[in-house]
Amino acid sequence: MRILGIDPGSRIMGWALIESDGNGYRHVSSGIIDSKDIHAVSDRLLFIYREVGGIIDSYGPDAAAIETVFFSRNQRSAFVLVQTAAAAMIAALNSGVPVSEYQPMMIKKALSGYGRADKEQVQLMVRRLLNIDHRLIADTSDAMAVAICHINSVQFKNRLAEHALSH
Amino acid sequence: MRILGIDPGSRIMGWALIESDGNGYRHVSSGIIDSKDIHAVSDRLLFIYREVGGIIDSYGPDAAAIETVFFSRNQRSAFVLVQTAAAAMIAALNSGVPVSEYQPMMIKKALSGYGRADKEQVQLMVRRLLNIDHRLIADTSDAMAVAICHINSVQFKNRLAEHALSH
After folding, report:
1. CATH number for the domain including B135?
2. Residue B45: which of A50, A75, A90 has the nearest Cβ?
3. pLDDT in tens, B125-155
4. Which of A6, A59, A90, B7 is a Cys-bridge partner for B142, taking CB atoms 3.0 to 4.6 Å apart?
5. Is residue A81 less than 8 Å (CB to CB) from chain B?
6. What separation in angstroms does the CA of B40 have from each of A74, B36, B47, B63, B150?
7. Nearest-5° angle of CA B59, CA B64, CA B69?
């Protein structure tokens, strides 16, 4: 399966395509969608919508996974964050790509076995699993993490279903 | 000009097409997008995105106007409300229809001259301006109100620009 991971951000949104054949993970491609110089929120939403649509057209993921957005103290920036995450989700959904959301704690737990792991520990685990030997920017490594979390979750459900069938 | 007014709602979204030739307003069409029986948020976002896209294809508005969403006490419902409003905005933007946002107080002021007018006063004013002699559901009358607010705002700016040119 080929999964598009998205790390939402109102200024920088990380994305990563990760594949798995059931034995480990493979990094296909990753990058950031940088909208920090686009000042009107509506222009930013449209830009993100089209960029995510373009990534989906290029790479044809089977599904997308996105980190759940939580409200920050600043209401205005929380607003824009939810809107930009929605733009990415709708781009995927409108291309027929189902979207799953994962809470930050679930992603950390899936990667490190520990829900309160720090960003550095998550990045180290992401790099080990994908065999990447250079540092990653946080937006990209977080996008890889949510894709891996989704792959784990799907594979776990599949094993449960197989187990149920075999008994 | 022909304006699509949108009253965001996570379960019921009101919409209205209002025209103006500079002398008063004309109600073209209006209705609601009812997604309350769609339980998965992602399904709801896609439904709203496509419904708003369909309205735009049918009526070809010059611009859209939407009431700004404010956070409620309940974080989860505020979340869904911002997401569904974003779905409507992105549908318009992706069809090349610019979107303006208006705060509730501005809309009330544009309609009744008073920023703290209640929903009943706004509805009465909407019905008078559009020559509608029957009661409207609140979602629809709020969508008409934001469209009228946008028309007023554009016409006011145009008059200012003409005034500046003639001096």
Report:
1. 3.30.420.10
2. A90
3. 999 999 999 999 999 999 999 999 999 999 8
4. B7
5. no
6. 27, 10, 11, 30, 32
7. 135
Per-residue pLDDT tens digits for A102-143:
999 999 999 888 778 888 899 999 999 999 999 999 999 999
Interface list for B 1-40 with A (CB within 8 A) = none
Distance CA B15, CA B12 (A): 10
- Chain B nearest-CA residue for A72: B75
- Which residues, including other chains, have CB under 8 Å from residue B151's CB and lie 6 or more apart? B1, B3, B18, B20, B25
User: By C-alpha distance, which of A58, A3, A59, A53 is closest to A26?
Assistant: A3
Asked if the Cβ–Cβ distance from B46 to A94 is below 8 Å, we say: yes
Q: How far is A8 from chain B (nearest CA, A)?
A: 13
Entry pTM? 0.85
* Residue A94 touches partner B, C-beta closer than 8 Å: yes
**Quick one: tokens of B20?**
């103006």
Catalytic residue among A67, A118, A133, A142: A67
- Count of positions (residues) in chain A: 167
What are the start-end ranges of the H helices in chain B? 41-59, 75-94, 104-112, 119-130, 138-165
A40: domain range?
2-166
Question: Pairing between strand B2-7 and B24-34?
Answer: unpaired
Does B139 participate in catalysis according to the annotation?
A: yes
Domain count, chain A: 1
